[in-house]
Automatic annotation (TrEMBL):
Ranges that cross the membrane: none
Species in which this protein is naturally found: Mycobacterium tuberculosis CAS/NITR204
Composition bias, Low complexity: 214-254
GO MF, one annotated term: acyltransferase activity
The protein's name: Phosphohistidine phosphatase
Keyword list, A-Z: Acyltransferase, Lipid biosynthesis, Lipid metabolism, Transferase
């Protein structure tokens, strides 16, 4: 059944305009409504198609980024209440949805057999984007608050998902950024060994030596350890215990 509900409302009274000095006010919606899912797909296309390193040739005609998993997901949508515009989105694939979809999206990129014992309480998150002009961190943090509210509402314990990381940028050593992110995750936020997954097409960053110690990672240049904002927000949400968010964050990297 298609639904749309406000998961986290704006703190702005209804009908009160927001002055430019205070910035926009946001509401977080939870929806499976086809029209809202389509709006999220259009937002994803707008962001991905203008992001270096992404290619969406198959979506050029429809100007929508969609796949077979969308219809089985609950979609977290951030709305600018001043304009009514959709400015951020995330999708959540709950256990029942994963069964209906024939598996996790992550399973198309990684061997996720280690997750099998966790499947009844595992939610996959992904396809997160924030519209340009709203990338001050607030929208991403609101989406993470929504993820926590979603887990609490439905009684799930574990989350996982993929984050795309460029191999390197202009003027950087090939593989340096990927290596920096990999080492940072392994040294500070690795999942327990029994829950680790492995990519089908690994990119090891062999052009540069691998670092193993936390002290070595601490010396990485900012470019080496640069994470996408969605990934940084997820790790900030992990709390004090490395490798865990709400006690149970399972990063998939590769």
């Amino acid at each position: 059944m298609s639904i749309a509900s406000v998961l986290i409302p704006s703190d702005k009274p209804h009908g009160v305009a927001t002055g430019s000095s205070t910035g926009p006010r946001y509401s977080l919606l939870l929806s499976t409504d086809p029209s809202m899912v389509e709006a999220a797909q259009r937002l994803r296309y707008d962001v991905f198609s203008t992001t270096p390193g992404f290619a969406l040739p198959a979506a050029a005609d429809t100007r929508r980024d969609g796949d077979r998993f969308d219809e089985y997901c609950d979609h977290l949508l951030v709305r600018d209440d001043d304009t009514g515009e959709l400015v951020g989105c995330y999708r959540m694939l709950a256990p029942a949805g994963a069964i209906a979809a024939g598996g996790l999206y992550t399973a198309t990129e990684f061997d996720v057999c280690a997750f099998d014992p966790l499947r009844p309480s595992l939610v996959e998150m992904g396809r997160a984007v924030v519209r340009e002009g709203h990338r001050n961190g607030g929208v991403v943090l609101l989406m993470w608050a929504g993820i926590l509210a979603y887990l609490d509402r439905y009684g799930y314990d574990y989350v996982t998902g993929c984050v795309s990381v460029p191999i390197g940028g202009d003027g950087e050593t090939p593989g340096s950024r990927l290596r920096g992110v990999r080492d940072f995750i392994l040294n500070r936020h690795a999942a327990p060994p029994q829950c680790q997954v492995y990519p089908y097409r690994p990119r090891s960053g062999r052009e540069v030596p691998r670092r193993h110690s936390p002290s070595a990672t601490a010396s990485s240049s900012p470019a080496d350890a640069r994470l996408p904002e969605t990934g940084r927000a997820g790790l900030r949400g992990a709390g004090a215990r490395p490798g865990l968010w709400r006690g149970r964050l399972l990063p998939a990297t590769g």
